[in-house]
SCP domain-containing protein
Amino acid sequence: MLWWPTLWAALLGHWVSHCYQLDSEDKATIVELHNRFRSHVLPTATNMRKMSWMDSLETTAAEYITKCVWDHNPNRGDTGENLFVGTGPFNLTKAVTGWYLEHQDYTYHNDSCEDNKLCGHYTQVVWADTYFVGCASHLCEEVEGLSFTMATMLVCNYSPQGNYEGEWPYEEGESCSKCPEEAPLCENNLCVAETPEASETPPVSEGTTKSPQPGPDTPTPSSSGPDTEHTTMGTDQTITTSEGEQPLSDTSSPPPDSEEEEEEPMNEGGKATLSSILLAATALLLFL
Ligand SMILES: *[C@@H]1O[C@H](CO)[C@@H](O)[C@H](O)[C@H]1NC(C)=O
Ligand SMILES: *[C@@H]1O[C@H](CO)[C@@H](O)[C@H](O)[C@H]1NC(C)=O
């Protein structure tokens, strides 16, 4: 009879974690938010491409996220990566918007970030040449590298990757005035292709139209050093981190870029939900 509780726990664990996976509506939200932010950059962009979902990037993120590690995926290939983790109720819009809100610390004219702030998530979100995104979310009982329990992680991978050292995320000027040949049309200030991008096909131009520029070891101004802020506020914590600051040097261990945002203190939603379900399951078990 001992295996019954185990089976129940396994099934429930599966069901609960399934609830934290992105559905098609979530994916549409992610793409829509990225494109909304990209179409509203200031100063305006001459060459900002419209972003689409790519299933293979989602697969990369989905395979990695179940490891529940607070660090960048060493096997993500040449994709950019933004991470988020938070306890309490997961709000996808808030997580993605948090990346964008780093624009408040970013100055376009000198391509730099305020001291002790992160801007790398923002610059990846609005990187003009990045036009594919794919993400996964997961409820982690524990997160390696953090003291969080029952935390939701969100990983987004980007292609072609952004955040090249010494490059601006986009070119300033009249919207759509320098759209690339393969995306010549203009829609909401974004450069779009004449036929929709096939989301299964990797971008053909990757690595061919331009050679990656940066010296591998020079960090961007936005993310140099271990700019770690890790103060604990209440029970709910969210942290985001971005990769791509050093796209060419992902063999070195990424800096512990982490940033904390305060959230309204709430009880640990994920945990509460899980325990009440387990309680209900136990009750059912006893009844049987
Ligand atoms: C999620 O966050 C967004 C942006 O902060 C907010 O407008 C929205 O109401 C939140 N949704 C829920 C369900 O809390
Ligand atoms: C970039 O410009 C902003 C605003 O003018 C300024 O506050 C900041 O110190 C500058 N950063 C660098 C690294 O020059």
The longest strand covers residues 132-142. The helical segments are 3-19, 24-39, 55-65, 92-100, 120-125, 269-287. The CA atoms of residues 70 and 243 lie 12 Å apart.
